[in-house]
Amino acid sequence: MNAQQKTGTTTGTATAHRVVILGAGYAGMAAAIQLAARVKGRDGVDVTLVNAQERFTERLRLHMTATGQQTAELSIPQLLEGTGTRFVRGWVTAVDAEAKTVRIDDDRVLPYDTLVYGLGGVADTSAVPGAEDNAYTLSSAQDAELLAGRLERLAGGTVVVAGSGLTGIESAAEIAERHPHLSVVLLGRQEPGATMNPKAKAYLHAALDRLGVQVRNRAEVVKVLPDTVELAGGESIAADAVLWTSGTRTSPLAAAAGLSVDDRGRIVTDATLRSVSHPDVYAIGDAAAIRQGYGVMHGTCQGGMPTGVHAALSIDRALRGKQPKPFRFGYYHTPVSLGRGDAVVQFTRPDDTPRRICLTGRTAVRYKETVTASPWPTYGRMKKMPASGAFWPRGGRFTRLKGTK
Questions:
Q1: Model confidence pLDDT, tens digit, residues 77-95
Q2: What is the spatial distance between Cα 18 and Cα 109, in angstroms, rounded to a whole number?
Q3: Is the pLDDT score of 299 beyond 90?
Q4: pLDDT band at 10 (very low <50, low <70, confident <90, very high)
Q5: Beta strands 183-187 and 291-292: pairing type?
Q6: Exposed, middle or buried, 295 (CB in 10 Å: 0-12/13-18/19+)?
Q7: What are the CA-CA distances from residue 75 to residues 70, 79, 359, 372 (Å)?
Q8: Which run of H or E residues covers position 15?
Q9: Structural Rg of the chain based on CA atoms
């Protein structure tokens, strides 16, 4: 038994190495299922997954939930069935990185030997006055349902979507299609599809125009009032509902625990996804600042799940006395839905710059739906064949850091 296993708790005659995973998003679920499958049948390893609710949040479908569309009710305990992972429902309120404990709901303490930190980001409503109190977000299914209720009650008026990134684009298109009696204004500092090639960008803009979405580029929101959005320069836009999709923020728990974080509160990791300050903590998904050859990764499902799988592989290797391997990931696509019957898919180089290839229309719709639905069969396959989850684009020269092979 190696040194890591000896730090665990004694259960009967065996010493269990306690792995606690915080957050059951795409990355956290991938980490839990992959690790449980790897250590299944092996004495001395306990895997626990902590999440605030039992319902899995399909973040890739929240713009649909926000317009009143029914999506699948996915249960985290059901997704974990057969893995041996213990599920603990509760809010993580503190992490003590020195004592190696996690506090849940302020009244329970969960000890760990290895921690996987996957508490992802939420909409950043703190940067602009009034956004916290007067804007809706898509940080959770409950938030999306609140917006759906508001939209359903509006007989007319204007909906402002603040933020012209992918979430803003998909939300504006969905709202305009499902509620054609409402005026939809999409505000952003950059034009929608700014990182796409000219063909894909033109298609996206034509689709938004067809849906009646008013696009305002180079627009900066400085204040959100109950019925108005104020822009830099003094202009105001009357708004019956405001959806805030401009930027995300991470939980302050990591910084409060003394873990090394970047200026956005993400845990700074080494090449194997371990915290640079606390090597018994791994960070995954939106919670991690992971450096690749092209820079620090940005949060997406396509990158989040591989980080969860790689953290599980690293923990498994460490428990078997082996050295964890470096993590490398290259982007490969940007799928964007434009309502239920249209979409555009921009294929990318590993550094996320656009290639010449893109898909549009019904072909793009089918591709996007395949991507959105892919986590569930992936999780299912990993339960039986864990190695099946360990394939993703490594990115070649784009992801290689200087001085490494």
A1: 999 999 999 999 999 999 9
A2: 13
A3: no
A4: very low
A5: unpaired
A6: exposed
A7: 15, 6, 33, 17
A8: strand 14-22
A9: 22
268-290 residue pLDDT tens: 999 999 999 999 999 999 999 99
- Nearest-CA neighbor of 55 among 98, 8, 89, 14? 89
Q: Is the dihedral of CA 382, 388, 392, 394 positive or negative?
A: positive
With a cut of 50, say whether residue 3 has pLDDT above it.
no
Within 8 A by CB and 6+ apart from 112, the residues are 18, 19, 20, 48, 100, 101, 102, 280
Percent of all residues in the chain with a pLDDT value above 70, rounded to a whole number: 96
Angle (CA) 194 373 150, round 5°: 70
What the block records as the tokens of 142 is: 């409950």
Question: Can you tell me the distance from the alpha carbon of 253 to that of 251, in angstroms, rounded to the nearest whole number?
Answer: 5
Considering only CA atoms, which of 79, 99, 4 is closest in space to residue 45?
4
The token pair that represents 207 in the structure block: 């689709």
Calpha distance 124→337 (Å, rounded): 23
CA 174, 177, 180, 185 torsion-angle sign: positive
Read off φ and ψ for residue 62, nearest 5 degrees. -65, -30
* Residue 404: pLDDT band with limits 50, 70, 90: low
At 52, list the tokens: 């605030």
Q: Is 65 exposed, middle or buried (0-12, 13-18, 19+ CB in 10 A)?
A: buried
